[in-house]
């Protein structure tokens, strides 16, 4: 018979001679159905020829002696023209590394046609993270017609079917199923394998048990896992169905996600989950799949606990491992290795050190007594609290969307850029120089207190140990015993003026970067040393920004003054860019964000021995070398006392000589 093959026959590969065996290949099976070919599969479960293969072949291994015997049989019968080894593509079993044998066998199937539309509707009602997951599982569900639910394994959940020993007709009805169900509920699934047919069958079948044999097929493991929503989420107290989230690798759109969907829709009419999150796989540092044979497996315990040589393999702790996971884009495959973990540890260390700085500067602060009301805070402090509220909102939204890398990135950005590089930098003067109860110092501590508690809460889902360390080391009493009892921080009352002033603050921070660049040029040329030796000359062409700069230039609260924001001794706003250039040692002009000309000159006046600021006013007559600002500070009196003691001690040494 001549048959026409399908798309699987091409002119680009193979010998051009195609044999068709309907019992040994899916494409061949479809062709056999089309042309009514006989279905023959003379291979048993052990990969040996059966009696159907003919004399001399029964019992021989198909991939071993059986191949040789078939060739000899063809030679003997005169039906073999030539034998020539030919290397071609063929599927191999990934575990045993041996060729795969395909054969047609009797199986149990579940038809998806009856509830496919319901499954597709349930897919549309589910949140998929990332969104591409919805397209993947939709395409796979649309093209699925039958589900082969039986397997031929020596382990697993049995399919409770009995067969007539003479005709192989199956016995499967409500009576037999209910009886087996009660036995399994009482004794477990092993009862099927350890009991006889007479013990497994209900009456009236038990009395005729010799007629029946129990089946040996097991349920597809995807059916097992796919029905876990019924045995776990739905059945156990404290859990609920449908589940909030299913989480697995990106290969499960064809596996667990789909099998769970099909079993749930078929029996309950809805998806077993509200959201599904898929992730990539962990690769080694070079992007290769981990394998024991390659020796590139990274043991998480080695990262948390360290190796035998702690210098070479330090113990980073669980938080660092968690931070690596949370920082990764799990939608794709992620890499891990020594250098990656070291980078993660550095990021963790910066976060921890920032928290230590915050806690250290709260040593004498009690919010119940010392906190400054929001309405009385300087503009800078209100601005930073606004940034903090934005951070908390962004982190909360990221957590809700399971976007952990976005949450961690926002937290790190706030700690490094907004806090360490800006707010904490410009606040050191009032933290270190101001008197303990001075309002400008207490206002800063009010902000630091809220920041450190909020950072602990924001970090807690990812860095629980660090968050709890921060909370337990707060130097004042809190109403909760743990950061995990404190809950999510409430947002500060909205400040309309703070929101409107965001653009001006962004401009100041941008100008601050320009000032720092010019200061670096001055240092490189040895024209100036520390930034407090400098005076900033500034002309801004933006009217709105100029108005804010003028307000802050004249501020008298010791916080919002431009000189503190730029960390210089003086700031002068001048009328033109030309004047800036003429009066500066170094200057630069920017065209946008905002358009301005910035210059650096030597500061006017004398350096204060206490705060190191240069002040053009006459120094204190009471305390030598001290500026008028520091003269009123109690700390200044202690400093002056130590200076007098030092001078007296030096005088005695000189007299002794």
Automatic annotation (TrEMBL):
EC number of the protein: 6.1.1.5
Biological processes per GO annotation: isoleucyl-tRNA aminoacylation; mitochondrial translation
GO cellular component: mitochondrion
Domain named Methionyl/Valyl/Leucyl/Isoleucyl-tRNA synthetase anticodon-binding: residues: 382-537
Class in the EC hierarchy, top level: ligase
Pfam families recorded: Anticodon_1, tRNA-synt_1
CDD domains in the record: Anticodon_Ia_Ile_BEm, IleRS_core
An example Gene Ontology molecular-function term: aminoacyl-tRNA deacylase activity
InterPro entries registered for this protein in UniProt: aa-tRNA-synth_Ia, Anticodon_Ile_BEm, Ile-tRNA-ligase, Ile-tRNA_ligase, M/V/L/I-tRNA-synth_anticd-bd, Rossmann-like_a/b/a_fold, tRNAsynth_Ia_anticodon-bd, Val/Leu/Ile-tRNA-synth_edit
Domain Aminoacyl-tRNA synthetase class Ia: 97-334
UniProt keyword terms in alphabetical order: Aminoacyl-tRNA synthetase, ATP-binding, Ligase, Nucleotide-binding, Protein biosynthesis
Protein name: isoleucine--tRNA ligase
